[in-house]
Design a protein that fits this description.
349 residues; Heat Shock Protein 90; Actin, Chain A, domain 4; 3 domains; seven-stranded mixed β-sheet; alpha+beta
Length: 349
């Protein structure tokens, strides 16, 4: 971020606490981004709404977390001006406003749910926004924002000094970075975000909390890529054992000397037939013994332990085409009881 851009972004961020129709005084607007906002009523309203959501978050956060949110907001503002080419002399205010308005709406939606409480722990959604200069002509693939490849990411972070949650925070950042960097083809061992992670991408990576039960926190990490005929999606679930400082393993739930994989596959196969016409399932899946189905049901990345049973997600293209994509299966604990570890505590108990 260059010095001039830093000053402009910081000014917008600081003045977002003022009570104007926009987050700053349009009478004093001199920068291209300010003039573009003031010239468009919808964008002005979106700017005001975002400022209100940002203010509300600041009021709910402790001082150290306020600093984190400000850093993330500064980065978003800079990213916005970059990909919408706000400072480009050839960019009209109308074009800049058309680019910025939906991004303001999306950021506001995120801010409105960025601060929450889970199990008496305050959570803040952290974000990063990356842009990398691109040449669509070289790849033949258009990008959402002409001239830039982009990667955005969001993940939950517990705002507490508790050591167990600190380990979980690192795990959530690592999970989000891993799926994003894997899509970018960059190093998955780096713990830093960098602009190169956006190269060749038009993507959004998000980690969300699905549920918290006792010391188990289940999250879903998803990446969507908007290149090609339709969006591509990849995801995985993680059930984190807070006290053990690690992800849940199959052996935490099932006794290894039992045919639990076959039981899961049978239950899921029957539910697939109930949910989807047989012709909608890939023909090579002949039944519960099909290797593709076994691979899905035995992977912890597709699991979400719930009060009613073990939820099994079906990743895209594993059991059916995208347009058929079946709903998740929930295998009741009663069905799985003969295979469970005596030490496993059912969710909700």
């Amino acid at each position: 971020m260059d010095l001039t851009r830093t000053i402009v972004v910081a000014a917008l961020l600081c003045t977002s606490l003022n009570a104007h129709a926009t987050s700053f005084d349009c009478v004093k607007a001199v920068r291209p981004v300010e003039r573009a906002i003031c010239a468009d009523p919808k964008l002005s309203a979106a700017d005001s709404a975002m400022a209100a959501a940002y203010r509300a978050d600041l009021q709910r956060l402790p001082s150290d977390a306020i600093g984190k949110l400000r850093v993330d907001q500064l980065q978003w503002l800079d990213w916005l001006q970059t990909i919408c080419r706000v400072d480009d002399a050839q960019q009209t205010r109308l074009s800049a406003a058309k680019c910025m308005q939906p991004l303001y709406v999306k950021r506001t939606k995120l801010l409105r749910s960025a601060v929450s409480s889970s199990e008496d722990v305050l959570m803040l959604t952290r974000t990063t926004y990356l842009a990398f200069p691109s040449d669509a002509g070289a790849t033949g693939m258009p990008t959402t924002y002409p001239g830039f490849d982009t990667l955005t990411a969001a993940w939950p972070e517990a705002q507490t000094d508790d050591a167990d949650w600190a380990v979980w925070n690192k795990a959530m950042l690592a999970a989000t970075q891993a799926i994003a960097k894997q899509a970018a083809g960059t190093s998955t061992t780096s713990t830093e975000w960098n602009a190169g992670d956006a190269a060749g991408n038009d993507a959004e990576a998000v980690t969300r909390i699905l549920g918290i039960d006792q010391d188990r926190i289940t999250t879903n990490t998803t990446i969507q890529l908007w290149r090609g005929a339709h969006p591509a999606e990849s995801y995985g679930n993680t059930t984190w054992l807070l006290d053990a400082h690690r992800a849940l393993r199959a052996s935490d739930i099932f006794r290894e000397d039992t045919p639990w994989q076959q039981a899961l596959a049978r239950a899921c196969w029957q539910q697939l037939l109930d949910k989807v016409d047989r012709d909608g399932i890939y023909p090579e899946l002949k039944g519960p013994d099909a290797p593709q189905l076994r691979d899905v049901v035995r992977s912890e990345l597709n699991w979400h332990p719930e009060a009613d049973g073990l939820r099994i997600d079906y990743p895209e293209y594993t059991v059916a085409p995208r347009f058929v994509h079946p709903d998740d299966s929930i295998v009741p604990w009663a069905v799985l009881k003969p295979y469970l570890q005596p030490s496993f505590t059912l969710p909700g108990k």
